[in-house]
Design brief:
Rossmann fold; 17% strand; 7 helices
Length: 192
């Protein structure tokens, strides 16, 4: 496994919804802006709606690189963002997830729904299996991920997830802290 030392691009998982509280949009926009200012490109699902569109738009407005990867079947449903730096249209969801995994040097889950959870757990499992040695992060706006973290802690306490796996997750709630933790991340010691 090769670990990441420099972040050129971060794959972001989030959905086509914005949530009920405008705070989510504000924080996601600040994150996209900060990625662009730090010279970090955004790789994401290719939509222009919801938080997906917010992260893309804010990075683009700050002159950042944004790569969208969208399956043909979702071109209209997720209203493809045609103004990104590069929009890759792929045949299906499986290919999309593989490309999102290949293109990013790290993975960040923003608030989202079922698809966000599915993508998060897949890349976290890939990390565990040694398919990649890239950091996986939760961007914890308004404590959004706290209930999930409680469940993961319960799984650790009950012996279903090793503590070092839980410790491998990056958890941050500001752009600067997130970027710093991702840059400093190293694959965890597996002896705990």
């Amino acid at each position: 496994m090769v670990s990441v030392t420099h972040l050129q691009r971060i794959t972001v998982f989030t959905g086509g919804a914005s949530g009920h509280d405008l705070t989510y949009q504000q924080h996601v926009r600040a994150l996209g802006t900060e990625f662009a200012r730090a010279g970090i490109g955004v790789v994401y699902g290719g939509g222009k709606v919801g938080l997906m569109g917010q992260i893309a738009d804010s990075a683009l407005e700050a002159n950042g690189e944004v790569i969208g990867v969208i399956p043909e079947v979702l071109m209209e449903r997720e209203v493809a963002h045609r103004n990104v730096t590069y929009l890759e249209i792929v045949p299906d969801m499986h290919f999309r997830k593989a490309r999102l995994g290949e293109l990013g040097d790290a993975f960040v889950a923003l608030p989202g729904g079922m698809g966000t959870l599915e993508e998060l757990f897949e890349v976290w499992t890939w990390q565990y299996l040694g398919i990649h040695a890239k950091p996986v992060a939760l961007y914890n706006i308004k404590g959004f991920w706290n209930p999930l973290l409680e469940m993961i802690d319960h799984q650790v306490a009950e012996g279903f997830i090793a503590g070092w796996r839980r410790d491998a997750l990056v958890i941050a709630d500001t752009p600067g802290d997130l970027i710093s933790q991702l840059q400093a991340w190293r694959p965890p010691a597996q002896d705990r």
